[in-house]
Amino acid sequence: MSRRGNCHDNAVAESFFLLLKKDRVKRKVHKNRGDARSEIFNYIEYFYNPVRRHGSNNGLSPMQFEKQYFEKQLSV
């Protein structure tokens, strides 16, 4: 939920849901809720976090960005 009058609070979540719908949800009709849940889990864990590059992370995936961040913290 965003604060009243601040449309930018929820921008990251809205961007994620847009990509999820565009990449997975609108392409497929699921037999049941369990299949849909499994498809969304697989999208997040096997594509979005480890593979998909993000402009706000200098073109790195979230996992690559996090790894790079913690490597820098350990070297300090």
3D architecture notes:
With 76 residues, the protein is an all-alpha fold. The protein has one domain (11-75). The protein is 57% helix and 0% strand. The chain contains three helices and no strands. It has helices at 11-23, 33-48, 62-75. The longest helix has 16 residues, at 33-48. The radius of gyration is 16 Å and the shape is extended. The termini are far apart.
User: Major beta sheet, specifics?
Assistant: none
Beta-strand portion reads: under 5%
**DSSP summary: helix tally:** 3
Structural class: mainly alpha
- Report, as a whole number of angstroms, the end-to-end distance: 36 Å
- Net shape: extended
* Rounded mean pLDDT score: 86
Indicate how many domains the architecture comprises.
Answer: 1
Rg of Cα set:
16 Å
Point out poorly predicted stretches: none
- In helices, the fraction of residues equals 55-70%
Task: Give me the count of strands.
Answer: 0
What is the N-to-C order of secondary-structure elements (H for helix, E for strand)?
HHH
